[in-house]
Amino acid sequence: MTRLTFENVWVRYGSGRSSHDAVRGVDLVVPDGRLVGLVGESGSGKSTLARAAVGLQEPSRGRILVDDVDVVGARGKTAAVRRQVQMVFQDANSSLNPRMSIGASIEEAFVVRGAGGGRAGRRAEVATLLELVELDPARAGDLPSQLSGGQRQRVSIARALAAEPRILLADEITSALDVSVQGTVLNLLMRVQRELDLTVLFISHNLAVVRQLCDDVAVMKDGEIVEVGPAASVIDDPQHPYTQELIAAIPRVGTPLFDRGAHR
Amino acid sequence: MTTLDPDTLPSISDAATHPIDITRRPRHGFGATLRSPIGIAATVTLLTLVFFAIFGPVLWGETAGQADLTKLSAKPSAEHLLGTDAGGRDVLARVLTATRLSLTSALMATAIAVSVGVVAGLLPIVAPRRIANAVNGVIGVALAFPALLLAIVVSIMFGAGLVGVSLAIGLAMAPSYARLTQTLGASVAGRDFVAAARILGAGRTRILVKHILPNVRDPLIVNASIGAGTALVAATGLSFLGLGVQAPRYDWGRMLGESLNSIYVNPAASLGLCAAIVLAGVTFALTGEALARALGVHRPSGRRKRRPSSAGSEGSAVPQPQRVVDDAVLSVRGLTVQAPQAEGWTTLVDGVSFDVGRGEIVGIVGESGSGKSLTCMAVACLLEQPLSVSASSIRFDDTELAVDGHSGAAPRGKEVAAQLGTRMALVFQDPSTSLNPSIHVGTQVAEIGELHGGLSRKEARRRAIDRLGSVRIPDPERRAGQYPHEFSGGMRQRAMLAMGLMGEPALIIADEPTTALDVTVQREVLSLLHEVNQERGTAVMFVSHDISLVSSFCTRVLVMYRGSLVEDLTAADLAAGRAQHPYTRALAASVPHMDSEPGSEFATIHEGAVFDDDPAQGAS
Amino acid sequence: MPNPGTAEPAPLAARGLGRGNALVTFIGRRLMRLVWSVIALVTVAFFMVRLIPGDPVRNALGTNASAAIVEARRESLGLNDPLWMQYGNFWKGLVTGNLGDSFSLSTPVSTIIGQRLPATLELSFLSLAVVLLVSVPVGIVVAALTRGGRRRAVDFTYTSVSGLLSVIPEFLIGVGLVYVFAVHSQILPVAGRSGPSSYVLPVLALSIGVSAGMSRIVRVEALTVFDQDYIRTARAKRMSRTRLYLRHALPNLLTSSLTVGGIVLGSLIAGTVLVETIFSWPGLGLTIVDAVRSKDFPLAQGIVVVYGLIVLIANLLIDIALVCLDPRSALKDS
To answer: Considering CB atoms only, which of B214, B534, B594 is closest to A211?
Structure first.
């Protein structure tokens, strides 16, 4: 029901001679209910693109549409539309207020929205969300420092879901986690996406994860999208030389990265 | 008149590079702090000060006003413990009486400074950009002038007297509070939880009240307390100059100014006043310190403990690795690393034994906290106190590095130093911090040649340029004269390698050398490492959390889990799924593969899972 | 585990922002700030006198002076002109070096300042030299000795002593020195400026507390530097401790020490006001106190401007020195 569209989006940092275009004319559609991966190396502009979609960064040009509403510089009613786009950040250490209990962090969305049901109602909603992300609702009073990295990231997801988003942007949400924890968070994201029928833009540098998780993938380089297509086909059979280079550089178990010499 | 407390202010270099983390330090709590020596001292002195401020004028006010004209500027006596002043009045009674006025002006000034400063400091966060810029500009200009000068200027405007002094000092101190608030506030405002709140649609006021204030409050309180001491001193100074409180009222400063004229006759008066002022100053400093501890603003100072007795060295057999290599460049036996805790010691690396053969590429893989990096640093003799390192034996290139079972960073003579410097090369994780930012890259690379190679500065430089070229740094001649920040991440990592190649390394220890790099850059750095290994036969110890990377780059893999080495297997066995230890298997399974089924669930290791099998069991 | 996905942005140099270019931009911006600061300084100094409740001339001459004398004085000072004209004249006077005449001494303010300025500058810069020469080595040595929780006793002693010294204000140290050297022994002169020995006590009074405070800051900075990865890199080269600290740590401490030095210089210059009063040091500080007390506003005004200019110029020089030492800071700034 909800589609996120980037139309010729440019984002510029700085001004004058030291300015730098982090995103250069991106056209991208994240179709309704799809999980789209956005991959690229550092400085490719993928995070900036996501930040532009939620209004943390004003694009210098172009439109960002939620269905058919342009949310660039949104105020009033369009701001409510933009609130349907929520974001989960990379570092759960920094994305949860250390002085706020995790329950209060999740509850904030209801308070800000002025949701009915009073305090008790909001508490019940928080409990439901904590259960949804497989955390004990009794821990609502805990501070983020009492949680492990993986648990904190699940709280971040719950907080984003509290805003009842239609579109979720996940910015490197597992890159600060150990592999053993990564799977739990990714499985949660996958399940939530299916259950709530969310549209998800999944930003990552890990192509193996994107290939397994996403329906489609877009490859970004130097602020531009160089290749888009179904995840498996782009990654298994890349067309653009940059994508080919990127995929060739990924180490695979059982395939020596370089020819092994005679020494062993 | 600076309000700089080095411990509560963010370190200057810190502030430039990292957001200030004001929240991760432990809070000791008020109860515990009150019982600590510093808490007791702060409480006692503060209560004394408060007592005299409240009761001083009541109890001694009258005595203080009585002039004995027969005793002008008299020396101390039983009757007048600090003697009398030029008007024949008892100095001690006046000192005690003046406590109230001296403290009042200091506290009023602090209140003004803090309220003006906090408002001015936080305004830019919520106000429209234009107003924010204007406020910032004013703060910046005001900060350029020393507070005491500002205070004099303001006191000229407001005239002398209690209110004038408080206003003068309060307004003069406000800019530095504003800047402190601003720095703290900006660092919090830049964090992701504030971004998240904005995305949720929280308004500026809500963000300020719910997210920013709670996170900047503690350091502000601590600095306000320390600032009260500064204000007291400043108010005293102004009064001392005759610009503060005017007759007939008197505070310590005015009294000190007057007593100085008769310092030859009755020095006790001046000294008594000095003591009172210092005591009050120390009280506020102590209170600030105590508050800082209670609120956890301070860095905890590490308490040093006696080393734990070296593990298992008493007569027990030397532990053997799972796989012994014949021609080992490095053999480690029973390596243990421990760190001091509140109670006793915690073991971070637990009796690890392994060999690295000449020309081998051995990977060490494990998750964060598994002890893999510590193992490397211990082998390189780079771990320092408070960590304690012990081992039955660490033999590197036919030299025993473990001295008496201990293997810290203690000096072990010039020869060993030269051997470690030239035969062992190190590449660390973060190329942006592992090169010295204020020394030219070429000079840093050349240094080993000068230190251990007996080369002249010129020769060392020439070799450094040659090595930079050999790690494929283009135009090495020019690049050698540049600073690290002019290099890209991959180039810095290659320069680190060039540094190691100044000698004739038998072993390169690479601790997560590509974790901070993009995959394409990672490949370049690895290909270089591989090349060095192939062409010079240099062994490589390669630490990584990425099991696919380790298995595709290394010949043999050591798997670490919670400080123990759980498995030692060939990369081929690992790739073929012949891992024995359950943790190795779980770890291998949890890595997403390029050929996993799209849309399938990710394999996980349950958060509470424990792999407590005997490590030896997993050995082949 | 840092992640490669959103790691560092491309180095600025790589974006075609040359170093020379950034330096020029930096100095340009810095000069702009200086201009704003000077405007603020002069404006404040101008209004400082105008904001005094009542008539400054009447204040200065006392209630006994006749209205005619007051009026004549007002006229000669230009106080009857419209405010904007007075402001303009003030600027004009500043540029031409004419700061008016002192009320009490009836000599041009610029002459008085010219006579008194060198004494204050000597005192401030000598003290700064002492502070830097003491606090930087002490801070580094103590940091080296106590790093990683070593030598708890040294740590405790140093922290207590330096903490105590840094809360004692310069004028109390001054009073203490006067007591010791005037009342007990007469080795060193306690008043006036005559010969090298007369510098000792005022410089000591100014620098003791500040040195203690600054050495604490240097120590914290040094501990931070010792924790950096590049120090580990240097240790991996197996060099002597001395070389490690002097060659690898010190250059990185200089910038932060210099930054703190700038703040310290400001407080030293302000401290001269008090110290000069105690030691009857014939500098600007003594003069401004007298001027304010005797309501000699033109003189006070002139000295405020000069003090402000000294601080501003010193800050400018320090900022430029910082950029020369560490070109990255200019890049970062722009």
So the answer is: B594
Minimum mean pLDDT range among A66-80, A90-104, C92-106, C134-148 = C92-106
Number of structural domains (chain B) is: 2
* Nearest-CB residue to C5 (from A18, A178, A205): A205
Residue-wise pLDDT tens digits, B54-83? 888 888 777 777 777 777 777 777 777 777
Which CATH number goes with the domain that contains B281?
Answer: 1.10.3720.10
Query: Is cis: bond before A59, omega within 30 of 0?
Result: no
What residue segments make up the domains of chain C, in order of their start? 12-96, 109-293
Q: Residue C36: closest CA among chain B residues belongs to which residue?
A: B141
Rounded to 5°, angle at Cα B76 from B73 and B77 = 120
- The verdict on residue A56 lying in a domain is yes
Identify from B3, B4, B341, B420 which residue to disrupt to test chain C contact, counting C C-beta atoms within 10 A and taking the largest count.
Answer: B4
Which residues lie closer than 8 Å to B246 by C-beta, 6 or more apart? B160, B161, B254
C20 to chain A, any CB pair closer than 8 A? The answer is no
Residues of chain C neighbouring B486 (CB-CB closer than 8 A): 11, 13
Q: Is C52 touching A (CB cutoff 8 A)?
A: no
Same domain, B92 and B238: yes
On whether residue A103 sits in a domain, the answer given is yes
B15: its two tokens: 């502030």
Residue B80 — left, alpha, or beta (φ > 0 → left; ψ -120 to 50 → alpha)?
beta
Q: Which residues, 6+ apart, have CB-to-CB distance to C39 below 8 Å?
A: none
Residues of A in contact with B520 (CB under 8 A): 41, 245-246, 249
Environment class of B536 (CB within 10 Å of its CB; exposed 0-12, middle 13-18, buried 19+): middle
- Beta carbons of C8 and A204 less than 8 Å apart: no
**Residues of A in Cβ contact (< 8 Å) with C21:** 17
Question: What residues contact B580, with CB distance under 8 A and at least 6 apart?
Answer: B567, B569, B617, B618, B619, B620
- Chain centroid offset of residue B499 CA: 28
Interface confidence, given as ipTM, is 0.91
Residues B282-318: tens digit of each pLDDT: 898 888 888 888 877 654 444 445 555 544 444 456 7
Measured N-to-C along each axis, helices B267-295 and B213-240 cross at an angle, to the nearest 10 degrees, of 180
Judge whether B568 and B353 are in contact, CB under 8 Å. no
Rounded-to-integer distance, Cα B610 and Cα B617, Å: 16
The answer on B537 and B441 residing in a single domain is: yes
How far is Cα B184 from Cα B310, in angstroms, rounded to an integer? 44
> Domain C109-293 belongs to what architecture?
Orthogonal Bundle (1.10)
Cα-based distances in Å from B191 to A91, A92, A98, B283, C274:
10, 11, 11, 35, 44
Number of domains in chain A: 2
> Looking at the structure, do residues A103 and A205 belong to the same domain, yes or no?
no
Domain boundary among A126, A145, A163: A163
Question: Looking at the complex, does the CB of residue B374 fall below 8 Å from at least one CB of chain C?
Answer: no
DSSP reduced 3-state for C19: helix
Residue span of the structural domain in which A49 resides: 4-84+165-263
